[in-house]
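Entry 14. Ran structure prediction on the chain below.
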Amino acid sequence: MNNRMKSFGLVAFYVAVIFLVGCIPEDSLQWSKDGSTGLLRMKGELYLVDGLSGELTKIAKDILPWPDISDDGKLIAYCRGVQCSNASENLKVLPAGQVRMIKFYAEKTKKNILDAGGLTDGQFPFPEEGLLLPGDYQNWAIRYLCENADGKLLELLGKEGIEKGKEKEIGYFRIVVAPAREPEKGRIVANSVFNVMGMKLSPNNKFLAYLMHTQEGQVNNAFEEYGLYVASLESDANMALVGHPVSLGFGWRPDSKAVAYIKADSKNLRHDDFIVGTLEERTIADVNDNLLAEATVLPEHGSAGTHRCTGENPELAGLIFNPWLKAVYGPGERLFFSSARLSLPTSTNDEPKWSVFCYDSVTNTVTNVLGPGVSSYTDEDMGVAQLDLSADGKKVLLPLSKNRFLIYRFGDGSVVLPIEEGEEFGEENVSALFPAWKGNDEISCMVSEKSHFLTRDKEEPHKRKEIVILGADGKFRRVLSEKWPDGLLK
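Output, structure tokens:
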């Protein structure tokens, strides 16, 4: 990225881009490319959905957000939380770099205890830096320390202090890939002490990309930092770093040889002004579908991953970073991405304007692909950052505030808003479930009890919210969730 883009750091009003309050829904419904099979994550449980009947088949529980189903509907990928009762025993399932990290910080904590002559204000004096600091990750080091306490530590902490450390709750995150119709035959791809979410299977079903929470120190005021990792489903390389820190939306190139993502400038993360970012593409595999990665040389303090991707990594466009942003390939390797529009000079009273752009790999240019007819709906609604592109690349779903959305067709610039005014639900910038393409010509979405899709008499609301199927023209087809249990939707 050129120096002119980096120099925009003086434009303080773009603080709003980073600190704008919003919520990407944890629940999701995704479809195979032909729309025949869906994968539903609802209230922490995972279900397979028949695209015609809506019949549910429960697969697993304790599932983290954003599992994935392959384009052909044959594979699913998800991450589930696993509780542990013993740190020393469960270290055996974690990557070597994470094991070294836990033991390293256990020793650091032990030294702090010895230097302080015991606990500090009743708390274990954990180091104030490193990847194990956020959340409950540090519990692993404390549990390991207390389960393996020597005489000196026992003397300082006593039985009560040791038991206090052993009571710390620990768990890890298990990545699973399984046949959609035989989920019991799933295999464990990787385990991690760090939070993992956002699975994406490559189009050829040979790789899996995912997000892993790897952040130095406590969560800052801007956003939680996630790294993008990739696993080969045909080798032992299961945790290869692609880029860090990245936004939540990334996508595989149609040939499964590269991943596109949006990366933040790590040198700018602690600043009070806006964060500069880049749209990047990392080559993942060679012509024979071998993962381009090398094993990580483990430092003394350990590491989160096992490998580092070594493929080419061009920077395609400069932009203003936000963790909601998304990059997705269309047909012909056209690369679409969301971002805020930047125009200079500008007033400090201006609000960020959200849109969708397309990067042209032939001319190395970026084009705003949303016409003027749609800007009045999308300009100030950051939900559009989570666009959903149809398989043919001709239409896009743009989420709006309070669970409304619009359908935009690139060819003729037509705009359809299926959810009528007065039928929205929820809070500003908070979504319950994003709409999703079901094949090229159908859409699944959640509607409120007062939706005209559910009741003829608008004064008599439906009994609950439902997930309905609409046509690409926004017209009602059927209620998908009609036979689903109340506990999922109420």
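The first strand starts at residue 28 and ends at 31. Will compare against last week's run tomorrow.
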